[in-house]
Amino acid sequence: MLSPIQTLTTEVINQISAGEVVERPANMVKELIENSIDAGADKIEIHFSEGGRFVQIKDNGCGIKNSELHLALSPHSTSKISALKDIWFINSYGFRGEALASISEVSDLTLVSKPADQKQAGRLKSLFGKKTSVEHTGAEKGTTVIVKELFQQTPARLKFLKTSSSETALIKNTIKAMALVHPKIEFRVLHKNKLLFYWPAVDHIQKRVEGVLSLSNTFYTNTTSGGINVEAVFCAPNETVVNRRQMWFFVGKRWVEDSTIHAAVMSAYRSLLMHGEYPIVVLSLLCPPDDLDVNIHPAKSKIRFKNSSVIFRTVHHSLRSILEKAPWIVNREQKPAVSTEQELSFPNMKFNKTRFQQKNFNFQPEAYEKDFQEKKVHDFSDPVPSKGPVSKPADLFSQPSSAESEDMSSTIKSMNMTQGSVTDVSSVEAQEVRQVVREAQEEAQQLVREDHQKTGYWSSLQILSQAHLTYILAQNRSSVIFIDQHAAHERALYERLMQSWNTGKGEVQNRLVPLALDLEESLVSALLSVQKDLLKIGLEIECSGPDGLVIHAAPAILKDVALQKALVQLADEIKSLGGSFAIEKKIADLCASMACHSAIRAGQALSLAEIKNLLAQMDEFPLSSFCPHGRPVFVNYPLSRLERDFGRRT
Ligand code: ADP
Ligand code: MG
Questions:
Q1: pTM of the shown model
Q2: Residue 206 and residue 284: Cα distance in Å, rounded?
Q3: Rg (CA), the chain
Q4: Residue 565 contacts by C-beta under 8 Å, 6 or more apart in sequence?
Q5: For the segment 446-500, what is each residue's pLDDT rounded down to a tens digit?
């Protein structure tokens, strides 16, 4: 028998809604931090312990008037009136006026607040919903909320709390998330009275992301298209993690879990990661309110986009276009050179002081010259690439003319004077000076080449040798580089095929003798179902009978055996998937497989011309630093590391 119908008491209603708002302590922490951010605070201090059953949040925001303190703890009272659809867009988190009321029902809560124009702070307490009257007290401008004994009188909720350590982990993540998208707010976080995090205010999200996630080498992009702004801080594809936890997504600065954004990010990193690897990305998306379906509980972190394919494309494109530029290569190799582009000019030999000094002190001139002189020991009969960076060794290593050297001596002298270390140029070893000068000269030439001939990075490397018939050994000014010949070629072939697919312009090359494939009938029809798609990558197939196919045309770069293997594999997959396959994914797999089987093998001897050709191909495709399966294509050993390893510097 059911009991008679009765209206619930406010207390019970409040406790139920408290459960929704404060499902777990981490949700409560989020609500309280959001309130501080809404109040315009630029300093937030958080103390917590007991897995979040004790939380104190202090801010320097606008505060609450004494006369309004009671209202702040009443249900449905808010100072942030806005249309519901705006919540993902406007700069205020709150709108329901429910959080404080709910928390005050299920805890021992103290609210202390002082607006700037009020002489004294006011304090209001609520012991499991029973409120005191407002008292005056001393406090600085801002608001402090202290929550103790959360859920003490709601045993059902208490029972559902996980262990203190898992709640603590959730709280930490929540705080990190809030901090990631609010770089201008200082966060101080104490756990059990010990400083856990301190993130000072910074002017850029990239700095904050590096601080919060303890990263040092991140990249940044910010693009707007169709009214959707995508801002992202991310790591190179060789810095990955084994789960999604370092993928942080925000929409309207709200931390969300969203499968569309996730899929778009993963597809942007396509072919740069190995199976089971996830990128490190903080991505913040701002979009017009009309793009979102707002009929979703806002406390939940799930959202629904009205047109998720637009969001997918926008996010994918924004991230992919920067990943394709492979900024990590520029960062590692070319940044210093680029930064001096305006300062160093050739052939007038103007030196940049700072740069010159840096070189002088960080660089080991003997090591440098030795390296370059020893370039002649490598395996090739033609030691110097005809158009490479050291195309005219005589020029590079010639003695500066006396006029030049005089000019330089005075430059050096004045530099040393300013620096206050060595004041007499004659005490600087003449050879060392010449070396530094040569180096600057070579650098200047290099810059001119980069500028005028747009020599690609890979082609500009000086080829030294081939190690173990597997790795190309090369060097530039600052490092020794090993390139995996198979992985590099595989990548270049893959990119070329994908480019044909994307542009729809495959380089079709008719075969003199068509290549026949004997296949089961079902596999033949599987391949015929994607005949048009194959044509886009230059593969022209035709049915030659119930269990046979012929290939009339194929890109010349592919080997027959690669075609056969890859097509059989594709046919098998299409057959096993029935009609349910995304052709883009299948084509990418097909291209990866054909590239892999057509690429130069490990163990294959390469001539200098072949190596040069390979490096030139790598330049055509900026993503050439990872093979399509995500393995790195090259390893870079900075000279500084070699010098350290050999004890030449500490
Ligand atoms: P909401 O944020 O949805 O408005 P809350 O229950 O979280 O609801 O807060 C109620 C009201 O209390 C807010 O609208 C705001 O006016 C005030 N308030 C809460 N926290 C703070 C704070 N840290 N600083 C200033 N005002 C606050
Ligand atoms: Mg709020």
A1: 0.64
A2: 12
A3: 32
A4: 593, 597
A5: 544 454 345 688 888 999 999 988 999 999 888 899 999 999 999 999 988 888 8
Report the nearest atom of ligand 1 relative to the CA of 95.
Answer: 3
Ligand 1 atom closest to residue 59's alpha carbon, by position in its atom list:
23
CA distances from 331 to 269, 338, 363, 455, 603 (A): 19, 10, 19, 17, 31
Residues lining ligand 1, CB < 6 A? Answer: 31, 35-36, 39, 59, 61-64, 72, 77-80, 94-101, 143
Ligand 1 atom closest to the Cα of residue 61 is 24
CB-CB contact of 433 with 412 (8 Å) = yes
Q: How far apart are CA 115 and CA 41, in angstroms?
A: 12
Distance 194 CA to ligand 2 centre (A): 27
pLDDT in tens, 127-147: 999 999 999 999 999 999 999
Distance CA(580)–CA(8), nearest Å, equals 51
Task: Compute, in angstroms, the gap from residue 368 CA to the centroid of ligand 1.
Answer: 64
| Ligand 1 midpoint to CA 299 (Å) | 15
Distance CA 125, CA 205 (A): 37
Q: How does residue 299 score in pLDDT terms, banded at 50, 70 and 90?
A: low
Q: Atom 17 of ligand 1 has which residue's CA nearest to it? A: 72
pLDDT band at 294 (very low <50, low <70, confident <90, very high): low
Measured from the Cα of 142, ligand 1's closest atom is 24
